[in-house]
Specification:
Length: 173
């Protein structure tokens, strides 16, 4: 296990730093836990091309060469992963979905049965997943997505919250 993982929180912000606001940024700065916010809006993150090289040819390494490698390295050392995303048609918008679709190198191609379901073996320690969304989101659909994303990473859902509640979310971290 990675020594600093138990206190590590990674926030992937697909909306830009101004979306967090000064109050939230100040709250994050006061945290006792190791919290890192990555603004993905200025990063070159391409779509997953479904090549499965991260399983078959270059285990754990994505064949798409862009800025996403920085994100993968940080997720590997994270206990709690929060995604801040906009919505489109009541679900994650393309920026949020693109960031999460590229997470495949975190798991292996080897399968196991766990809790009556077939799962990929984890390449790293389990990661919990939470979502803060902006816009008109279907909370049931987003909750189900968050639970499934966390399950695929061996963790649990941290919950799904509209942007109006971000101060409450940060104060509980």
């Amino acid at each position: 296990m990675i020594d600093n993982q138990m206190n590590k929180i990674l926030i992937l912000n697909t909306l830009g730093t101004e979306a967090l606001g000064e109050d939230v940024s100040a709250l994050l700065a006061e945290k006792q836990r190791d919290v890192e916010v990555m603004d993905t809006t200025k990063m070159d993150i391409r779509h997953c091309i479904g090549c499965n090289h991260c399983f078959l040819k270059t285990p754990g390494v994505c064949s798409v060469k862009d800025d996403y490698e920085q994100i993968l390295r940080r997720i590997a050392h994270t206990q709690d992963l929060w995604l801040i995303s906009g919505t489109r048609f009541v679900f994650l918008n393309y920026q949020g979905k693109r960031v999460m679709d590229r997470i495949l190198p975190m798991i292996t191609m080897n399968l196991i049965f766990k809790d009556g379901e077939m799962r990929h073996r984890l390449r790293y320690e389990p990661v919990n997943v939470g979502l803060v969304y902006l816009g008109e989101g279907n909370s049931d659909l987003l909750n189900e997505w968050c639970q499934r994303a966390a399950l695929n990473l061996g963790g649990h859902s941290l919950g799904v919250f509209p942007m109006e509640k971000i101060k409450e979310v940060v104060s509980c971290m």
